[in-house]
Automatic annotation (TrEMBL), chains A, B:
Annotated CDD domains: HAD_L2-DEX (cd02588)
A Pfam family assignment: Hydrolase
Stated family: Belongs to the HAD-like hydrolase superfamily. S-2-haloalkanoic acid dehalogenase family.
Organism this protein belongs to: Prauserella cavernicola
Record-given protein name: Haloacid dehalogenase type II
Length: 253, 253
């Protein structure tokens, strides 16, 4: 499909990670349930995960505007966790620091969607692949190693020093790969992310993840833009991404 | 061996790349010979490779001292190539730019030593692994994909914005991994690299590569420091690196 379209060959496909490649809701809920059981706390893991994630976008906003110096997502996740614990009447000061770190690092241990590893392995034959996520490099590297995500390269938001949808987050990643924006495709389950990537000149692939936020999800059920590629999961994405095998030798392209 | 020593557990092993993991001399010589044949030039690939590499350290020096703004190794490789071509009486202006780029990218296509892929695969079970090289990210990512190097993470000198042996090159890599210097080991075939890493607080592993510079090599034939680990190749390194399997769950360590 991509080769049939005008424009340069797509050399690299970068992925939104939380929600697109891994199921953050299931992973965080399981960690919270385990944490609650060990500490004799009454917490609903699923509800807690949604509340923790709801603070994600607002917590990055001061960094995006420049009101706050860049801090990594691990730092924001910890701050947001303390707030959600507070909402539940739990004083984080009473909890052993190592236990809090373990809970913050639930985001390092997120499970892939069932199709993710197979799809990425297949796509890797035709393109260089990696995450383009708001996660920091340590988080993404540890997640990948644990979940078996076969990335060629791991680019964290602490490498680009920018949070999506800031244009720099896309363009610095493209530049580090030594490519032009039109040679890179972003794959994401979120239309807003794809809009920002397209504005920066990248190619786009929408992957539906209709249960990311649970059974009541109302957003991002369908593609809402003229994306280069649309797929139901990462295996379908890999199969729709046709063209020659990836080669380190660019002569003659 | 490492677990029997005092200090924290080694979570990550980072590798010098040119000479330690890949055979730059063979890869560059083959590309030069192919280039010479296509262009009807009289060049000795082996000799050319050594001359090109001889300009490597001097070309980074102005960047290290701050006399020159950071430029990537791809840029330095190109500048150094033009000089070596000039030494041979070849005006690079007469050569198609795509052909020059192809030759610069010989450094993206370097072959691994025969033990490298097996050793890295084995070590990867017990530690997070990646390059810590003066190569830029695009170079290292493409080299890894082509050579089958199973890195968990790829850190380029254009990510740390420093060239070894600057302390920042080691310490920024450690920091991006979310680790302390004592939790990271540098593996290298060059004693000077290990000295600098040890001074920055990292653990060290020496891997002998006695034919890196050809049959007449006189340097780095033996370890010249009190390194934590010494191995004849990367398979031996992996086998000497004992301890539990790597786990994303750091609770209880």
């Amino acid at each position: 499909m991509t080769t049939a379209q005008p424009g340069p060959r797509v050399e690299a496909v970068l992925f939104d990670t939380f929600g697109t490649v891994v199921d953050w809701r299931a992973g965080v809920a399981a960690a919270v349930d385990s944490f609650a059981e060990r500490h004799g706390l009454d917490l609903d893991g699923q509800d807690f995960a949604l509340r923790w994630r709801a603070r994600y976008q607002p917590s990055m906003e001061p960094v995006r505007t420049g009101a706050r110096e860049f801090v990594s997502l691990d730092v924001l996740h910890r701050e947001n966790l303390l707030e959600v614990l507070g909402e539940h009447g739990i004083d984080a000061g009473t909890i052993e620091p190592g236990e809090l770190t373990w809970l913050v690092e639930a985001w390092h241990r997120l499970p892939p969607w069932p199709d993710s590893v197979t799809g990425l392995r297949r796509l890797r034959e035709r393109a260089l692949i990696g995450p383009l996520s708001n996660g920091n490099l340590a988080l993404l590297a540890r997640m990948a190693k644990n979940a078996g995500l076969p990335w060629d390269v791991v680019l964290g938001s602490d490498v680009t020093r920018a949070y999506k949808p800031q244009p720099e987050s896309y363009l610095r990643a493209v530049s580090l790969l030594g490519l032009e924006p039109g040679e890179v495709m972003l794959a994401a389950a979120h239309n807003s992310d794809l809009h920002a990537a397209a504005s920066a000149g990248l190619r786009t692939a929408f992957v539906a993840r209709p249960s990311e936020f649970g059974p009541g999800q109302t957003t991002d059920l369908e593609p809402a833009g003229d994306w280069d590629l649309v797929a139901g999961d990462l295996v379908e994405l890999a199969d729709r991404f046709t063209g020659p095998a990836w080669s380190v030798d660019r002569r003659g392209r």
